[in-house]
Amino acid sequence: MGHTYYIPTKGTAHQEAHIMATTTTQTLTIDSIKRRGTSAMGNPSFTVTFTNGLVARTRDNAGIAYAIENSEYRGAPVQVTFTTAGTIINVQVAP
Questions:
Q1: What are the beta bridge partners of residue 51?
Q2: For residues 14 and 36, what is the distance between their CA atoms, to the nearest angstrom?
Q3: In degrees rounded to 5, what are phi and psi of residue 58?
Q4: How far apart (Å, rounded) are the C-alpha atoms in residues 46 and 36?
Q5: Cβ-based neighbours of 66, under 8 Å, separated by 6 or more
Q6: How far, in Å, CA of 54 to CA of 52, rounded?
Q7: pLDDT averaged over the chain?
Q8: Distance from CA of residue 6 to its chain's centroid?
Q9: Per-residue model confidence (pLDDT) at position 25
C-alpha cells in the first residue's frame, strides 16, 4: 500500500479551505525524476517529468521530495496534487 505525503497546513480553517480550493489532482505516470539541488535549509527538490510530457517540480522544503523517488511510484499510475503554480505537493499511488 502506498504512502501519502503532503505539506501540512497551518492557519485558520478558512486558510486551509483556500489551500484545498487552489489545488488540482491528476492521475499520471512518472517518466523521470531529476534532482534540482538543495534548499537553503538543506532539503532536496526534484523536477519530475510525466509520461504525458508534463514537467513539474516538488515544493522547496517539502516532505514529498523525500518520497518522490520511492519505487512504488515508478511505472504505476499515481495521483499527483499540484498548486495553481504547478508545484507538486502530494503524490500517492492511484487506487
A1: none
A2: 33
A3: -80, 155
A4: 5
A5: 5, 44
A6: 6
A7: 80
A8: 8
A9: 92
